[in-house]
Amino acid sequence: MQLGKPLSEKSSWYRARSSISLSGDHLNMFRKRTALLGLLCASLFISACGFQPLYGTRANAPGIVTELAAISVGAPSDPLNRTLRLLLEDQLRADGSVPVLYQVTLSTRLSVRDVAIQQDTDVTRKNLVLTSKYRLLDIESGEELFNSQAIAIAAYNRVGSEFANIIAERDARERAASQAAVEIRAALAIFFQRRKGS
Known about the structure:
Blueprint: H1 7-48, H2 62-69, E1 71-74, H3 79-92, E2 102-117, E3 123-138, E4 144-157, H4 162-197
Parallel strand pairs: 1-2
Antiparallel strand pairs: 2-3, 3-4
């Protein structure tokens, strides 16, 4: 009567089992190394392309911040342009602490779009689309250094109360203007960043 397998067979079975377990460990290690290698290659590729985050540390470096603070903001006197001008001045920190070297001129318009219409044709939600074209000028030479446009969208709900609708629309205007100011500031920072690097 055979109570068990010969020792040599057991040894082969254990060796096979250990080999399978070890192969699994090797596979996991290979996957980890492959993932790390992929991340390393991606980071090197991004660096080689010169990509930098929009709000990266270089865009907020002291030299860039000083350039932004040297910008005055010009805009028409209507409420929308005035609101954006004040918000952009706050973003640029243009408090007069450094000599003014540049001027940004704004031209802003607002459009309203219906985005939720019920079967009875009542509009329950609207989008405010703020579009601001702007130019960066060198004050001394009058040369245009940069121009672009910022687009910001803010939504608000319409309800039965007209007073509540007025407040909601006003809030949406301010949110859109705030978004546009942040976008303009970021674009100007990138412009000065690239200018210094050239």
